[in-house]
User: What shape does this take?
Amino acid sequence: MRYAAAAVACCAVAAGLALLAADVAAWPKAVRAGDVRYRVAPQQEGLWQAHERVPGAVARRLLGVGDDIEVREALRTLRLGRLDNLVISDPRLEVLRGEARARLETIAAGDGDPAVRSRALALVGALNFSSALNEVRDRPAHLREAVRSFHDAIQLDPDNAEAKLNLELALQRGRGLDVGEGAGGKNPSPGGAGASGAGAGTPGSGY
Assistant: This one.
């Protein structure tokens, strides 16, 4: 009887491991498929989701894809918020931008991959930069926040070329407004050669 129970337990463990292996294999496919759908139809919900057979999101935690999914969701929300549209006439865009900011700030404040957190901070900076271009009254404050976010992003990941480029752009835009204060002086080094090829001259270009 004891042997029969042990055999049943071993079969159950083997079945569970097989299901977990299938879940682990499903995630990379789900992320790739979600990336393709995002490019075509970013308004779709649940773009980066894998159907996990083992409860508790065990495979997702084992693979450590949580931060990557969160960044993708934040980027999706940011895209739907039309950051390229400097004049906000639709209140829904403001709501989406606020949601994107909250998602990105949560990622940046976490303890995940520094490169992922750096990218999130750079996107927060892009949001602040966009606000600076749109809101004349609070422009110096928004530019200071943008510079701080870009600077912190570079501190987290010195290879973040996009943050370096956007830091340069923010400092150029804020010349005479003391926007460099609080970010390593009025002219902190943005990293020089690392900014080469980072993207076009608009904040957050390339994402």
